[in-house]
Design brief:
Number of strands: 0
Distance between the termini: 67 Å
Helix content: 55-70%
Strand content: under 5%
Oligomer: single chain
Order of helices and strands: HHHH
Structural class: mainly alpha
Largest sheet: none
Number of helices: 4
């Protein structure tokens, strides 16, 4: 194998890796922009995978409870657990996740 072929192969691999990273970052941004945050109904929230739930809850905490800077991973995880419990207890699957009373439990009262 010639040195030029090896260099071209490495450049192609680097370009493909860069495009993959950019595509994943773009998906996260698109997901963040289209995500409903606190308006997400329980029925939709419970169907989301863990990654989407993290985006949903982070957006909810940042917008609805005014947590700044961005909520810590522990706060997001605890909020997901609390919202999941609340959603399981709801008779109405259309209840938005913002109706989970996290004040004083996970989010400091203001």
């Amino acid at each position: 194998m010639s040195q030029n072929h090896s260099i071209r192969r490495n450049i192609a691999l680097l370009a493909a890796t860069t495009l993959a990273v950019l595509a994943v970052g773009s998906c996260d941004k698109a997901q963040e922009l289209t995500n409903k945050g606190g308006s997400t109904p329980c029925s939709e929230f419970t169907k989301q995978d863990q990654s989407k739930q993290r985006v949903t809850v982070r957006k909810y905490l940042e917008q609805d409870t005014k947590i700044t800077p961005t909520a810590s991973p522990d706060t997001v995880d605890a909020s997901i657990a609390a919202i999941a419990l609340m959603c399981q207890a709801q008779a109405n699957p259309d209840t938005p996740i913002r109706d989970a009373d996290l004040t004083g439990i996970l989010v400091p009262k203001k």
